[in-house]
Each structure stands twice: as structure tokens, then as C-alpha cells.
Amino acid sequence: METTNNGQRTIVVGTRQSALALTQTGQVIEELKRISEKHGLGYSFEIRKIVTKGDRILDVMLSKVGGKGLFVKEIEQALLDGEIDIAVHCVKDMPYELQEGLMNGAIPKRVDPRDCLIMKEGSSLNDLPKGARVGTSSLRRSCQLKNVRPDLQVESVRGNIDSRIRKLETEGFDAIVLATAGMIRMGWEDRISATIPVDVSVPAVGQGALGIECRVEDPAVRELLSLYNDEETSLVIRAERSLLGALNGGCQIPIGAYATVRQMSTDSAALELELTGIVGTPDGSVLLKEMLRGSDPEQLGRDVAAALSARGADRILAEIEG
Ligand SMILES: NCc1[nH]cc(CCC(=O)O)c1CC(=O)O
């Protein structure tokens, strides 16, 4: 935190330095500026780029690197050290437990949560020829794609979304799978060949949503961020993350969860959420799916997790984590 000559606080915003991270952080800052002006708060903003472990280790399957919060840890440390005041993350990359003293000050409105295909040719999953080579290093995507299309050859592809799209050409894939949200934020919607419905590929926990993290003991920033929070998105993300916490998962294991608000209400008893969760094996031979409705997001997440565990989810996850 710094104070400029005219007494206005400059809020330092930390981010990873991938093209997607920088683009979405720029978009967040624009929105925070607008909110700050509208409410006469007069803040200015500054970007600080931070390299994370997940960015440095690019040649290893993420599921093999181990540890949770690979893309988050260094950024959280910078928050705790006061080097930055706000951190912008993809919720998908956030571990269930944030560092002590930190919190999600805002979950802004979610964009499209679905996975999508970037294809060499064609415009739907069905257009992929028998035995087509599909690039993804997400065990969740691999599980669900192989489940509906056992013939597909799923191969690992890592790197930032721009380099993954390039690998479609350079490494001879027929398709690669990405998050629609990332493509939208980059302004690359026209490169999307097909979006995959959520009943075919249940998205990753929090996919398409951003988490704006801050220090618990920073009332001014918390007040600003509360004005940026989207109530519905917050509720569904709480439900999805509760499932993640209950299954003790990071972003590198085949867990998916997708929640929607069926009935919005300020009266928590009248609120109705629906949460679908999946756990499976990377080869798609096992795919457990459970859907429940409820009014308490945390309880709903635990309930869907329990239903999955009752069917053997724990065993699958233990095997994968080795
Ligand atoms: N693990 C990488 C990651 N983290 C968040 C997104 C996409 C944007 C989002 O879900 O908010 C991506 C890229 C991808 O999966 O294609």
C-alpha cells in the first residue's frame, strides 16, 4: 500500500504473468476503477507480476508436481508481506484453504464455465474422427472425454493457453481442450470450435470465475471488493469449493463440480442450489456422478462429496495421489 501526494491510496494488484492472467487482471482493475469512481473512493491501481511454482515447472505433468495451490502460494505470500494488496486468481487454481489472514474479498460474476474444443476441423465433439488425438493435461477432462469417446487418444499438453493453441498445429493434435472462459477473456471466442455441454464435461471447481483475494485486516480494500462481489456466483462457488474441500482435492485430480442457483433468495431457507459433482479415473472407465439440491452451499458440497465417497471416490483419489 502506498499513499500518493494527494492522499489517495494506490492499491497494488498482484497477478501471474501469463497472457491470460495479465489480461484478466487488467479487466479486473478497469472494473475496480469504475467502482471506485462511482463511489467517490478515488483509488488508483498498480499491477505487480509474480512468478509462481506452477509457472516455473512447465515440463512435468501438473498431477505429478504435487502440492496444492501451485499457482497461488507466492502470490499469497506477497499479500501477507504487504507487497501487494489484492491478488487476482482463477478460482480454479485456488486451493481450498487460503492462507491464514487472507480471504476472497470478491467473487465477480462468472463467465461461461464450460470446457471447449479448439479443433483442426469440425464443429462438435462428434466431428472428431475415430482415434483422434486430443491434447489436455487435465485428468478431469481426460476422464470425461474418454468416458463418452473411449476411442480418443488423450495426450498431455501443458503451457499457457496461447502456447497450447499453437501446439494444436505444431504437435499434430486434432483438438485441444480449454476453458471457454479463458478464450472469452482473451477475446478469442472465434477460435472455439465447440463448447462441451456441462452434462458431458462437468467443469473444474470454480471454472470461469475469478477470486479476488485480500487481507482480512484491510477494511478499505474489503469494502471496495464487496462492491464487486456477485452474490449468485459467490454462492455457487462456495458450494463447489466445499465439495473440493470435502474430497481434499487440488486442481490436479479428476474432480469436477458445477453448481447453479435454481432459486435466489435472501432468506437462506428459500434459496435453492443444485450441485453436480464427478470423480473418475483418467482413462474414463469409471465416472461417478452425483447431483443434489440444497439451500446451504457448504452443506451441499459436503453432501455431494459424501455421496461420491460412498460410491468409491475416496479410493479413486487415493490411487491417483499415490
Ligand atoms: N489451470 C489453468 C487454468 N486456470 C484457469 C483457466 C481458465 C480460466 C478459468 O477457468 O477461469 C485455465 C486454463 C484452462 O483450463 O484452459
Tell me what you see in this structure:
- Pfam families: Porphobil_deam (PF01379), Porphobil_deamC (PF03900).
- Tetrapolymerization of the monopyrrole PBG into the hydroxymethylbilane pre-uroporphyrinogen in several discrete steps.
- It comes from Paenibacillus radicis.
- The chain is 34% helix and 23% strand.
- Helix 9 (231-246) runs parallel beside helix 10 (297-310).
- The relative contact order is 0.14.
- Strands 1, 2, 3, 4, 5 and 11 form a 6-stranded mixed sheet that branches. Strands 8-7-9-6-10 form a 5-stranded mixed sheet, sandwiched between helices.
- It has helices spanning 19-38, 53-56, 62-65, 73-80, 139-148, 161-170, 180-186, 219-226, 231-246, 297-310, 313-321, and strands at 2-3, 9-15, 44-49, 86-90, 102-106, 115-119, 133-135, 153-155, 175-179, 194-195, 210-215, 255-263, 272-280, 287-294.
- It folds into 3 domains: 2-108 and 209-229, Periplasmic binding protein-like II (D-Maltodextrin-Binding Protein, domain 2, 3-Layer(aba) Sandwich), CATH 3.40.190; 115-195, Periplasmic binding protein-like II (D-Maltodextrin-Binding Protein, domain 2, 3-Layer(aba) Sandwich); 236-321, Porphobilinogen deaminase, C-terminal domain (Double Stranded RNA Binding Domain).
- The chain is built from 11 helices and 14 strands.
- It has 322 residues and is an alpha/beta fold.
- It binds ligand PBG.
- Residues 90, 92-93, 161, 178-179, 181-182, 207-208 line the site of the ligand NCc1[nH]cc(CCC(=O)O)c1CC(=O)O.
